[in-house]
Structures are given as structure tokens and as C-alpha cells.
From TrEMBL:
<dbReference type="InterPro" id="IPR029058">
    <property type="entry name" value="AB_hydrolase_fold"/>
</dbReference>
<dbReference type="InterPro" id="IPR050583">
    <property type="entry name" value="Mycobacterial_A85_antigen"/>
</dbReference>
<dbReference type="GO" id="GO:0016747">
    <property type="term" value="F:acyltransferase activity, transferring groups other than amino-acyl groups"/>
</dbReference>
<dbReference type="InterPro" id="IPR000801">
    <property type="entry name" value="Esterase-like"/>
</dbReference>
<dbReference type="Pfam" id="PF00756">
    <property type="entry name" value="Esterase"/>
</dbReference>
<keyword id="KW-0732">Signal</keyword>
<feature type="signal peptide">
    <location>
        <begin position="1"/>
        <end position="19"/>
    </location>
</feature>
<protein>
    <submittedName>
        <fullName>Enterochelin esterase</fullName>
    </submittedName>
</protein>
Amino acid sequence: MKKLIFFVFSLSIGAACFSQEITNPAPQGFDVVRADIARGNLDTITYFSETVGNNRNAVIYTPPGYSNEEKYPVLYLLHGIGGDEFEWLNGGQPQVIFDNLYADDKLEPMIAVMPNGRAMKDDRATGNVFAPEKQKAFATFEKDLLNDLIPFIEKNYPVKSKREHRAIAGLSMGGGQSLNFGLGNLDKFAWVGGFSSAPNTKSPEELIPNPKVAKEQLKLLWLSCGDKDGLIDISNRTSNYLKENDVPHRYEIYDGNHDFGVWKTSLYKFSQLLFKPKDL
Ligand code: FER
């Protein structure tokens, strides 16, 4: 009996050491439309993709007070396996979150681009969204993003084009893409966020082969997940490696599942850190 009690005691000590506290949710009303505040603008844009060989669409949000006289940093915000360029809008209304944050002066003015991350001719989220060729298209999107979409945005919008002014984040498959592409291209991205990252996330050793360089180059490395998400081991694994290798990052775990509750909270918190001095 004593042995059993000791065993259970050790297990709970072990769980306490390895478990992470649940982080506070976003404040009430963060995602509710407010009357009488300035609003950003949403648009759909079309760019030619050399990678795919046809025109592709993306949604773009420009902030309240947007002006061609200014230059803005850019957040690329990516969707999940069952989504497309409209998933964030339909499920998360990020424009409402952003408008409210701007009204409270909590966000650095930025452009947010929501692309279609399934880089193939038919990029609709129809049929079996887990089909191998569709999953492959989520990896191919790295080329489309770097060689087609980013140059299009930089040619057609008043944006700052240094790595310090470019962020990438996404939900689930888009979280995996953000970690893979962001950490794989530190010369292009200084701000990287994975929300509930999916099994397309590379192994930590592949993601961060050189922790010292990552540590020097990253302005922000963000991970978040719902505590009841079946995919949480992927975020835990990544965070553990980062801890072991002394790479600063923020890992937030919310009371939630694999859903927009977690993703909206993540966007609310992550976006406020962007393009600001590190220790704000
Ligand atoms: C998987 C489970 C979930 C997977 C991807 C997902 C690639 C993606 C989920 C999402 O984007 O919401 O095994 O394999």
C-alpha cells in the first residue's frame, strides 16, 4: 500500500513538473463588434502563382487609417486543413478582433494577408481534405508564399520588406506551415506563431537545427494550443525542445479544444506582441 501511495504521489509530482498552467482567456468582448470605432478594410486580391501556374486568391485586411503614404509590416495568417482563404473570416472574424485592438491602441499598424495555403490548381477544401495530394499542396505553399505571394504584396502594397517586419502564423495545418516556413526561412521571418499546430509540423530537430541562430534571429516564437486538443503533443514536443535548447518562446495553453475559441484567443494575444520591442 505504501508503495502504491508513493507511486501515485510520484506520478502527480511528475505531472506537475511537466504540465503547464492554463493561460487566461482573452477579455470578454474582445471579439464582439463595437459601434462607433474606426474599422479596417477587407478585400480579396488575385495574384499569379508561378508555383501553381494559375491565378490564386488571398484576403487582405488593411488597418483603420491605412494610407499609401505609410509603410506597414505584414502578418501572413494561415488556415487549417478543412479551410481556405476565407476560413479565418468565416470562423474567427479577425477583422473584429483587430478593429477592437486598434480602437484600444494595442496593435502596431500592420497589414494581414490570409492566403489559400493549399498550393494546387484546385485549391478548394472539397472532397477528402486529408488526401495525400492536398496535404502535399500545404507543403508546396512555401514556394508560392516566398516566390509569388510575398513579391506580389510587396509590389502592390506599401509594406516594409525586411525580415523584422514580416510575421507568419496560422491555425493547425497553418500552424505547422508557419513553424516550418518561418523557422526554415529566418532570413524572411522574425515573428513566428503556431496555433494548435498539426502533424505537418516538422520534428523539432528539423525545425530548429541551430538553436543559437534561431535564438539570435527570432523576435517572437509563439506556440499555443487548447488543453483538450488531441494534437497538443506536437506543441508540447516543440516547446520541450525549445526549452532544452534555450530558445526563448512563449507557449500558451487555453481551456479549449481544436477550435476557433483557441485560435481567436491566440490571434488576440499573439498579434499584440507583433512588431514591438521584444520586452514589451
Ligand atoms: C492529422 C490531424 C489533423 C493531420 C492534420 C490535421 C496531416 C489538421 C487539422 C487541421 O488543420 O485542423 O493527422 O495530418
